[in-house]
Amino acid sequence: MDILTSWSVAIFAHNEARTITGCLDSVVSQDSGSCGRIYVLVNGSQDATERIVSEYTITHSNVTLVRLQLADKASAWNHYVHKICSEEDFHFFVDGDTTVAPNSFRALAKALRSAPGADAAGALPVSGRDRVGWSQRMVAFGRLAGCLYAMRGRFVSELRNRAIRMPAGLIGEDLFLSCLVKNLLSRSGLMQPSPRLVFAAEAGFAFDSLALNRPRDWIVYGRRLVRYRIRDYQLAMLLRHLETHPQLVVPPNVETLYQQTSELPDYYWRGRITPFDLLAVWQIRRVARKHAIASTSPSE
């Protein structure tokens, strides 16, 4: 029996005109005769991503373009899980700026079939200067990378039936999902492996690395560091929130999360990453303040 008997793919793309064709080619090549549906969720793109995907669908009947106005991966993930996907054995999730290594889908499906108690399987990076260390941390701590992973159909159905969604605006959706899969909804859960989340050494994803000799990459790297700090703060607040809400009451968006948290991050010295941390704290507090003002303003 073909291990990929029933499956579909969600590709998340925001301003990925430069990389989306390569991503699609790598995903389409995983097929090898089985009939998987591929959904490209183009969310809030301002470049040619939507046009490129639309043209790609003309020659690839199993690829579907999904247009979303909001530029937010967590919301796009919710849209796929709760409004698009059907009952499948496996669901694969791919970032539009990556390429999928050959036979990765089969390796992920095999890993799940070999571990009946597992609900998700992660792929490992095959590019990047820190790929070895990154892979080791993923396995040691049980953390999916949003670039490429698979979920068993029964788990996706469970998320749908329980109406579990990502908070809109959440940056670390892959780390939160790791906790959901492991059923370890606490800050310590980010550091613990679990048999419910496995990894396929033969499944890999690649991406373009930043270069020190390209000045434009310095800005990209700086913004990425700020996003990483916002991600860490958001996850800490969300998991702290869930520790006091055992019924898995997830805030609908990060603005509500900021309003409900008992402890917004504060400014303090964090060594060499302090400038990025200060920017992250400033952005979180600015959004929280704006939301608080809007919620207390009298309606007209």
Identify the notable features of this structure and list them briefly.
single chain; globular; alpha/beta; Spore Coat Polysaccharide Biosynthesis Protein SpsA, Chain A; eight-stranded mixed β-sheet; 8 strands; 2 domains
The low-confidence parts are none
- Strand content range: 15-25%
Largest sheet: 8 strands, mixed
Spatially, the strands of the biggest sheet line up as: 3-2-1-4-7-6-8-5
Query: How does the helix and strand content classify structurally?
Result: alpha/beta
Q: What gap, in angstroms, lies between the N and C termini?
A: 63 Å
For the record, the CATH class of the largest domain is: Alpha Beta
Mean of the pLDDT scores? 92
Count up the domains: 2
Indicate the overall shape.
Answer: globular
Helix content: 40-55%
Write the layout of secondary structure elements.
Layout lengths: L6 E7 L6 H9 L8 E7 L5 H11 L3 E6 L4 H12 L5 E6 L2 E3 L3 H11 L5 E6 L5 H11 L6 E5 H9 L11 H10 L14 E11 L7 H29 L10 H7 L13 H23 L4
Parallel strand pairs: 1-2, 1-4, 2-3, 6-8
Antiparallel strand pairs: 4-7, 5-8, 6-7
Helix pairs in contact: 8-9, 8-10, 9-10
Explain how this protein is built.
The mean pLDDT is 92. The protein has helices at residues 20-28, 49-59, 73-84, 104-114, 131-141, 153-161, 173-182, 215-243, 254-260, 274-296, and strands at 7-13, 37-43, 63-68, 90-95, 98-100, 120-125, 148-152, 197-207. Strand 2 (37-43), helix 2 (49-59) and strand 3 form a beta-alpha-beta unit. The longest helix is centred in the C-terminal third of the chain and has 29 residues, at 215-243. By secondary structure, it is of the alpha/beta class. Helices cover 44% and strands 17% of the residues. Strands 3-2-1-4-7-6-8-5 form an eight-stranded mixed β-sheet, with helices on both faces.
